[in-house]
Amino acid sequence: MKRPKGRVQRVLQTSQQKEGLELSALLTNPHLQALMQAHDIVAVQELTEESVTQYLGETVKLVRLQKARDTPLGATVRNDLDNVVVSRVVKGGAAERSGLLSEGDEILEINGIPIRGKHVNEVHDLLQEMHGTLTFLLIPTSHNKPAPHRQTVMHVRAYFDYDPSDDPFVPCRELGLSFQKGDILHVISQDDPNWWQAYRDGDEDNQPLAGLIPGKSFQQQRESLKKTIPDRSQEQQGKIWCSKKSKKLRRKNTSTLNRNTDHDDILTYEEMSLYHQPANRKRPIALIGPANSGYDDLRRRLLSIEPEKFAVAVPHTTRNPRIHERNGREYHFVSRSAFETDLAAGKFIESGEYEKNLYGTSMDSVRHVVNSGRICLLCLHTRSLQVLRSSNLKPFVVFIAPPSQERLRTLLATDGKTLKLEELKVVIEKAREMEVNYSHFFDATIVNFDPDQAFQELRRLVDKLDTEPHWGCHIRNCTSFF
Ligand code: 5GP
């Protein structure tokens, strides 16, 4: 708007045309000039989101952010003596998108309200009420802003349920991300080892703001502490909304939490990668479930309907072949010592003894089916899952759960099996135990309420492995697998 006064007016001054003279008179009119000047001042204020100025002898920064109603800004604060300091900026929130707030900045004022001396809980409550344009007066951190670097995203499967509303340690409950055991999480920042920033799989498009989840070692440490210290969570509830814990509590907890102990037996997250099975190397399907849940019938049905597509791995045994049996067809017949050598070398996925003979399914047998282009169907005990998953066979694990006790009784009766009430209860209880202890290994669960429907569902799952990539346990170098 200053330009007409300069270049345009110079042109107009020499103009002899009527319109030129008229425009020149208009632009030099004091009222119009004042109007343009006012416009310029307002425009500068509107556009400038950050400006540096002096405040009580300090160099301060004026930052303007837009905050939607009932949406967190995506930053947490902590008290540093009397000061209120930005402790974290969460990816995807208004604070992060603006690029104007940094970890370590001290907040002096928000919309003219003095902040120094306030407890972080008060600041949180204040911010929760505010929306629209927020003006922050900040003392910028003296630490240099780290150069923005591309964080590599880590994909994990959670091995535990997490509810931030029930967690007295989360730095900000609104920023906490709830998840359930088995969920896939995309971890986008591990800058704070205690509180990672993550999205739940599928949420990242409609939920721009990342959430806080406990970091792996933090979770392991507090799980191990839970076993030794009585639960004080009720006591601490509600005291640390969007804030760090009080100094006293923080010091106490960190000293205990940072004890360098090995908690690798406490399962937290498992790194996963997206895997699309090659057309000629199909993932083995492992069916898991308690006896009488119907998993064996499902396997039989798949094998009988499409024998060219599905196959079982030929097991090993130390018993002698029967008259009609051929080595490598029904079984690989091996000596006891050969079996035991392979067993000790970890070549079996599972094994057992029956009437003084050893039986077992080897990795190589499964590999043989996979290399033939067919889908290897396995019915496994849960204890074999860990071994199978740590191989590079990329199994797809389907848990076949029984329906309700009454429905199970009806289904088994249709098959001519009459189980006592106690036996039915054992099936249900066994299934529950399996879910509690192993559900993090399940890629899918089918409740066998109706055997036909369960079969169709299993078929759909198997077909989807051809058309869609799936999350599988992360094994580097998987292109060279087999
Ligand atoms: P058979 O000697 O009559 O063929 O089988 C005897 C038992 O060994 C059956 O109960 C059968 O289920 C079990 N068996 C067969 N193959 C395997 C295997 O690969 N692993 C285990 N653990 N048991 C097997």
UniProtKB/TrEMBL annotation:
Q: What is this protein called?
A: MAGUK p55 subfamily member 5-A
Q: Which residues form the PDZ domain?
A: 62-142
Stored SMART domains: GuKc, PDZ, SH3
* Domain named L27: residues: 1-50
The organism sits in which domain of life?
Eukaryota
Whether Transmembrane helix counts among this entry's keywords is no
InterPro entries for this protein: GK/Ca_channel_bsu, Guanylate_kin-like_dom, Guanylate_kinase_CS, L27_C, L27_dom, L27_dom_sf, MAGUK, MPP5_SH3
What keywords appear on the UniProt entry?
SH3 domain
Guanylate kinase-like domain location is 282-463
Q: Which organism is it from?
A: Ataeniobius toweri
Q: Name one Pfam family in it.
A: Guanylate_kin
Family membership noted in the UniProt record: Belongs to the MAGUK family.
Q: SH3 domain location, by residue?
A: 151-223
